[in-house]
Amino acid sequence: MDTTDPHPAARRPSHDGDAIRCDICVIGAGSAGLSVAAGAVQMGASVVLVEKGEMGGDCLNTGCVPSKALIAAAHMAHAATASPAFGVRYPAPDIRFDAVHDHVHGVIAAIAPHDSVERFEGLGVMVIRAAARFLDPRTVEAGGARIQARRFVVATGSRAAVPPVPGLAESGHLTNETIFGLRARPEHLVVMGGGPIGVEMAQAFRRLGSQVTVIEQQSILGRDAPEAVAVVRAALLADGVALMEGRKVASVRRTADGVTLELADGGPAITGSHLLVATGRRPNVEGLGLDAAGIAASDKGITVDARLRTSNRSVFAIGDVCGGPQFTHAAGYQAGIVIRNALFLLPAKVNYAALPRVTYTDPELAQVGLTEAEARKAGHHVEVLSSPLAMNDRAQAERRTEGFVRVVLGSRGRILGATIVAPRAGEMIGLWALAIASGLKIGAVAGLVLPYPTLSEASKRAAGSHFTEKLFGPTTRAVVGFLQRFIP
Ligand SMILES: Cc1cc2nc3c(=O)[nH]c(=O)nc-3n(C[C@H](O)[C@H](O)[C@H](O)COP(=O)(O)OP(=O)(O)OC[C@H]3O[C@@H](n4cnc5c(N)ncnc54)[C@H](O)[C@@H]3O)c2cc1C
Ligand SMILES: NC(=O)c1ccc[n+]([C@@H]2O[C@H](COP(=O)([O-])OP(=O)(O)OC[C@H]3O[C@@H](n4cnc5c(N)ncnc54)[C@H](O)[C@@H]3O)[C@@H](O)[C@H]2O)c1
Predict the structure, then answer these.
(1) ipTM for the whole complex
(2) Domain boundaries 14-56+115-160+282-344, CATH class
């Protein structure tokens, strides 16, 4: 036996004339494609994985990983500003942006082996580094090879959408693909778009010493609960980020100093040294030969049903290219659904009711399930429970009392959603994701014993408030008063 092969039982793709045959052919080695490929091969399927760019896709190279590494550097810089209130004074931080750049790329390099060709080939996957395109409904071509698979999975991701603003395309703007390559700190970063990418980057660059202006045509973090966004907005303003909400950019012009943006309402033009475009995403569908394969798509991306099947029943599509929830954890979840459908022939369907999302500002904004407005719109009889962080002892000790836990209940204590604004809210939202996924009632969270003093206790406190009236009301008082008479 070849002891260098960790998966000797894995089926391997076979060559049939000039075609490669396999059980599953995955197009795109980002969060979505890698999850399917790794899962499928370890479950015994023969897998071909085709990637035309960097292994790891957006998340590893130009998305989650570099952005969170940059945010970690920004936290370090900010600590010096926040520390005097604790009686600890640091000198003003000496931020060397080239070293920040190296830190970010060091983190990418540390994680990269997990997504590498070597790891996947070690698992038994055949990796082809080329662009893939469908020749017909059952054949893909990549790097001169023809691949015929029982099932295909399209996981080609998305890229920054650049709006058709005059002058923008020629302005030399940055996107998530280029901003993490900067070795020198931008003097004045103008950010177009106040979604998760825009606000995360705005705060991080501001804390690392750039002047930052965000121009958002509506309001920042427009998908989130307004009361939660208000806390994040206040934090951005306190950091010195200039927020221009409800403002539209009319044109962009490259100048000797950088870029100048004219606004549609005729307000003063904004000039910055750099411009980041973070105005949403476009699916990567061009050149895939979707028509040849009979795969339907819209502007939002490839059309899929609840089982993530495309209009070609042999082809699944997952991740950002479908235009649904665009998160790495959503891609991983969808990969599991495809594996159940494609390998086990189970009719598994997606259900996003318990899919969390977190914007990694400071404080973080975490959401799972429905916001109050969404629950009311859906016709639920809504009860809202809330616990401000100011009531939490750990938050007081750490002087981080901005924020709250808010829980939306339906009838009979059913948990419909939770919103948390807090430092590390992303670590706290898992409890509510589990509660919703498991169909738990609010009493289950109210009855938990949590360690003191933790921020998580704010979740228990919010849950407990559902019972406050009953617990401390006249009936309880009457019962307790009555029972005391029998106690010697
Ligand atoms: C700045 C930023 C920060 C983010 N932060 C977070 C976060 O904190 N948490 C979170 O959950 N999500 C975050 N996201 C979103 C997350 O990165 C994406 O949802 C995730 O990467 C999508 O994975 P994917 O596999 O669908 O696509 P991708 O990662 O884009 O992978 C698609 C791959 O397909 C390849 N490809 C495309 N066309 C072809 C072709 N024809 N042939 C072969 N290969 C092809 C591409 O080269 C690419 O490698 C962030 C995104 C950005 C931009
Ligand atoms: N923490 C995370 O999980 C995280 C972080 C970053 C990105 N992401 C994912 O990536 C996706 C894309 O992020 P995004 O922030 O680019 O997109 P987005 O669609 O979430 O937000 C884009 C924002 O840009 C605004 N906008 C659009 N056109 C504009 C214009 N011409 N001028 C000014 N503003 C304009 C929109 O009103 C919107 O608020 C997110 O929706 C999310 O799924 C996740």
Answers:
(1) 0.98
(2) alpha beta
